[in-house]
Amino acid sequence: MGVSITSLAYSLPAGKITGAELSARFGGAAMKKIEAVSGILERRRAGADECASDLAAGAARLLFSGAGYSPKDFGLLIFASQTPDYLIPTTACILQDRLGMGSSCAAFDMNLGCSQFVYALAAARSWIQGGLADKALVLCADTPQKILDPSDRSTACVFGDGAAACAVSKTEAAAFSDFSFGADGSGYDGIIWPNSAMRKSGGGASERMRMDGFKIFAFAYRRAAESVAEILGKNGMSVSDIDLFVFHQAGEMIVKSCAERLKIPPEKVYYKMHDIGNCGGASVPIALADAAISGRLKPGMKVLVCAFGAGLSWGSAILEWSADFRGAFSDADFSDSPAKPQSQRAADSARR
Question: Residue 351's pLDDT is what?
C-alpha cells in the first residue's frame, strides 16, 4: 500500500492588484526594480468579506467536482493557514461542516506559514499509513493582503491571496519517497504579525505583518538549498534524478538563486508567481496544480517540493507522480493578466 497525491485544485479571488496601481502608490521607477527582482507583475486580493476559508472551500469544491470525490470520502481535513477565521474555534471544523464532510472526519488547523503544505502532506501521509483514514483533504489558504501594511513595499508588492486543495489517498504504489524538515526559532521576527494573538495586542499600521526582506532572502538562500541537498543525499539521489522542482514561490530571484546554487537546470524549475504573487502557504500546491494543468507532470515523474518561511521553518519532499492522479483544476481567470516573463518559462514546455 502506498500514499499519493491524487488530485489538486486552486482558487483565487477575483480582485487584482496591478503593477499600475502599485506604480501610482510607490512610483514607477521603484516598481520596475521590484518587478525585475521579484518577477511578480500582478497579485490577487480577496474581497472585504472574503476570508482564506472561503477561498479554501472554493478550491475543495473544484476538487470534488473535477476529480469525482464526495466530501464524505475523506476521513481527515487539514486546514493550513496563518489567516484563519478565528483563533477559537479551529477553522477546519467550520470547513468540515460547510463542505458537507462526515462527522467521523477528523479536522484540525495547521499554522506554519509558507512551509505548511509540506508539513501538512507529511501529516496526511502518516495519518493514512497509520490506518486512521483512507483519504485526507489538505487545504492551504492565506490572505496576506488583509494583514500587511499597504504602504510597505517589501510586502505589498509581493504577497497575494489564494488557496489550494490537495487530495491524499491510498494507492497501489508509494509516491512519497521521503520528507525533510527544519526550524530555527531564533529568526522568528523575520516575518511577523506582532499583535496577532496573545503576546502583544493593540497597535496601528506599524503593527501589521512585516518582513525583513534581506534576512529572509539570506535564510531562504541558505536553508532551501541545504534542505534540497539533504533530502537528495539521504535518498542517494542527485539533481539529475528529479524531473521537476517546485519551490515556494517567494519571488523569482530567491527561487533562481536557490536553483543556481544547487546547479538545477532552468528547465526543471517551475514558476507560478507572476500573475498571482506570493500566496504564502498556498504557493507550492498552486504551482504544483498549475504544472499538472499545463501538462508538465506525467505519471512516474520524480518531483521535489521545497517550502520555507515564517517560523523560521522549512521542509522538502520527494514524490513520484502517481498513475492514480485524477487531475488538477482551477477556476482562475487570467484573460487580462500579464504574460509570464521569459525568464520563468524554461520548465513550461520541457519533457511534455
Answer: 53
Contact criterion met (CB below 8 Å) for 314 and 306: yes
CATH topology of domain 1-352: Peroxisomal Thiolase; Chain A, domain 1 (3.40.47)
Q: pTM for the full model? A: 0.95
Strands 106-110 and 176-183: unpaired
Active site residues per annotation = 114, 248, 278
Residue 319 has pLDDT above 70, yes or no: yes
Nearest alpha carbon to residue 135 among 181, 68, 85: 68
| Beta-bridge partners for 269 | 245
Pairing outcome for strands 210-211 and 191-192: antiparallel
Cell representation of residue 243 = 524531473
Mean pLDDT of 246-252: 95
Pairing outcome for strands 328-330 and 106-110: unpaired
Contacts of 317 (CB under 8 A, 6+ apart): 118, 121, 122, 176, 177, 178, 179, 180, 231, 304, 305
**Strand arrangement of the beta sheet that strand 176-183 belongs to:** 176-183, 313-320, 302-309, 244-247
Residue 204 confidence (pLDDT) above 60: no
pLDDT above 80: residue 202? no
